[in-house]
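Deliverable D5.2: sample structural annotation.
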Amino acid sequence: MNPDSYYDRSEVSNSDLTELKNTLYPRIQYGDKERAFKFGTLVDAIITEPERVNFFQLTVDNIRYDKADFELAREMYDSLISESKRDRFLATVLENSDTQRFMVNKGQIFSYADFQFTLDTRCKWDWWLPAFGFGGDLKTTFAESQKQFDEAVDFFDWDRSRAWYMDIAGSDRDFIYAISKKNCRIFKKFINRDSEIYKRGKEKYEDLAFRYWMIA
């Protein structure tokens, strides 16, 4: 188990909103969700928390992975590093960001249909750039094309998570880098408060946050 105390905290997270959405609006789950989450944890750890990874025992913390998963994760990591040689912003992120940094916003103000309420909120950044005052997220994806990646941003509510994180931090910019599990292609998305991704994500989280407040 990840020993990080972040997951024991009581503030509302984007994952809590996801659980609420799945309860309120259940839909068919395709593929092995638990396996996908476990593999995403492996890739996140290799890139942002390598001290948690034992490359000889094929473990993250005390969780063991099979050799094929580790080989794919390393291939995806190598693809990201190769991309950073062409993408100066990504190189800056990899060299200068704080990884797995969490933030808490006590009494965050929300508005839903002109009704205001507050929630204590939290988030945990894959990458936070303290010198610039914004951060971003690392994703793994089955997308093989830009079109499929754009569809995944909406389908998996990555727009909601980015708006949620931006508003907790009070940041005006955000980004996603995603690595394909199919062809190791790197996809990217840059977000600001005028972008449709932010506006759509904020609308999504405000609806769920209000429902969470009602039942809390």
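Annotation notes: The first helix runs from residue 14 to 24. The mean pLDDT is 95.
The annotation will be released with the project's public dataset once the embargo ends.
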